[in-house]
Backbone:
């Protein structure tokens, strides 16, 4: 690998690059990796991050309910009384576009508390 | 990075009131940020390896609590910990416990019994936004939390100079905030490049990147955690890139801010009155589409670029509003909680 060093994060308390000589690169993100930090996923050799993303994307996804209301909120509709803007107008869910709906599609995701980088 | 910025704001305010603070984070951005410089000597920062799993994080937190023996334990957003690692620990923690409580996915709230989890805390601080348990008997709302005080923001001319805009250049400055995940930081470079192509000589465009992020690496260095798309974004936005943190400091020099709907970007744009347009990014816990106001929210990258360009050309005035941060109030509330123990 012409002198490249493994970029995998290691260390228990303090994160730092592995620093060993790289033997290959991740087949998705091209991160240089040594033999210890490459993960075989199907036919691909991946870094830990891409392997985790692969698992996330291939895992089961529950049904999506984009209209899920929150009964925890007294003022659902949001930022009404709590707004600091002084506009005093709550959001209208009908203002949402498809892209906004996409941003909420994880609401019924079953993978809560499984990914320490998930927020 | 949002959690880290929010707790940094609180840690900084507490430290300035004379409290010793230990900040424990597993943010992937933490290793590159000059946290010690911004937070001061009163805050000790422990950077956990972001690759640690929940069991390992739980062990580190337990060991840290054993070693530090704090009077107060503050948890951001997740009363059970992000991986549920705090749930078994909290009953044995003698310190007073404070939860920073903001909006979270209601399905998660319900499925994981957060109504019971928040009862383990002596105080719920609600920093400026609606939240599921904002009406809890021990919940107190404050203004949104900001990392810097008003006097610490750069004057307009210095902010523009910091972003590489010559003093004689009076064109509008559009800043695209590289925030969220490392991949989204890269995508911001792509958006910045598209904006520059759209605006041409009508405005100056900058891509703000947190120091130490993969996108902040020299172009010739091996870059970690970047996909092909991010690699392309890096090449497109390279000339526009400015390593900046906290970006809040330079907002007085920014005429249009382009970003996402995360807590800090939104609150910082509003507090500084900076014209702002953003995408609502999908998150497992946070709901950015609900945080953004209709006039702030763009439904696609194309709409984002068009609206930002329109704003830059129109030269909208900054909205005048008092710059208010709730961090000092939060520290006062915490002090009362500790004194009442």
Residues:
């Amino acid at each position: 690998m012409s002198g490249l060093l493994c970029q995998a994060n290691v260390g228990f308390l303090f994160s730092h690059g592995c620093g060993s000589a790289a033997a290959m690169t991740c087949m998705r993100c091209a991160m240089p990796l040594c033999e210890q930090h490459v993960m075989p996923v199907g036919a691909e050799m991946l870094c830990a991050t891409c392997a985790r993303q692969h698992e996330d994307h291939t895992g089961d996804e529950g049904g999506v309910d984009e209209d899920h209301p929150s009964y925890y909120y007294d003022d659902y509709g949001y930022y009404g009384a709590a707004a600091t803007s002084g506009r005093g107008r709550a959001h209208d869910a009908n203002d949402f576009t498809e892209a906004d709906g996409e941003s909420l599609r994880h609401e019924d995701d079953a993978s809560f508390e499984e990914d320490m980088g998930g927020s | 990075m949002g959690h880290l910025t929010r707790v940094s704001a609180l840690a900084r305010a507490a430290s300035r009131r004379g409290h010793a603070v230990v900040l424990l984070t597993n943010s992937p951005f933490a290793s590159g940020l000059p946290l010690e410089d911004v937070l001061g000597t009163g805050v000790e920062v422990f950077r956990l390896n972001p690759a640690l799993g929940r069991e390992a994080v739980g062990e580190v937190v337990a060991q840290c609590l054993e070693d530090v023996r704090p009077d107060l334990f503050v948890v951001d957003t997740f009363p059970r910990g992000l991986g549920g690692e705090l749930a078994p620990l909290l009953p044995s923690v003698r310190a007073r416990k404070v939860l920073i409580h903001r909006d979270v996915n209601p399905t998660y709230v319900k499925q994981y019994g957060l109504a019971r989890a928040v009862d383990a805390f002596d105080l719920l601080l609600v920093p400026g936004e609606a939240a599921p348990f904002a009406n809890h008997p021990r919940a107190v709302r404050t203004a949104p939390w900001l990392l810097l005080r008003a006097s610490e923001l750069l004057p307009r001319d210095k902010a523009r100079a910091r972003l590489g805009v010559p003093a004689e250049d009076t064109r509008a400055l559009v800043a695209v905030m590289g925030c969220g995940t490392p991949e989204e930081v890269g995508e911001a470079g792509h958006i910045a490049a598209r904006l520059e192509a759209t605006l041409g000589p009508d405005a100056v465009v900058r891509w703000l990147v947190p120091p130490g992020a993969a996108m902040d690496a020299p172009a010739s260095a091996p870059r970690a955690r970047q996909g092909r798309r991010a690699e392309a974004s890096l090449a497109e936005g390279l000339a526009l890139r400015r390593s900046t943190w906290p970006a809040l400091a330079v907002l007085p020099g920014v005429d249009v801010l382009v970003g996402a709907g995360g807590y800090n970007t939104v609150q910082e744009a509003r507090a500084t009155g900076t014209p702002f347009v953003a995408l609502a990014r999908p998150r497992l816990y946070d709901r950015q589409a609900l945080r953004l106001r209709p006039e702030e929210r763009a439904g696609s990258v194309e709409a984002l670029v068009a609206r930002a360009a329109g704003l830059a050309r129109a030269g909208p005035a900054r909205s005048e509003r008092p710059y208010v941060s709730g961090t000092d109030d939060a520290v006062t509330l915490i002090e009362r909680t500790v004194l009442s123990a």
The beta strands of chain A are 9-10, 16-17, 24-25, 32-33, 39-41, 44-46.
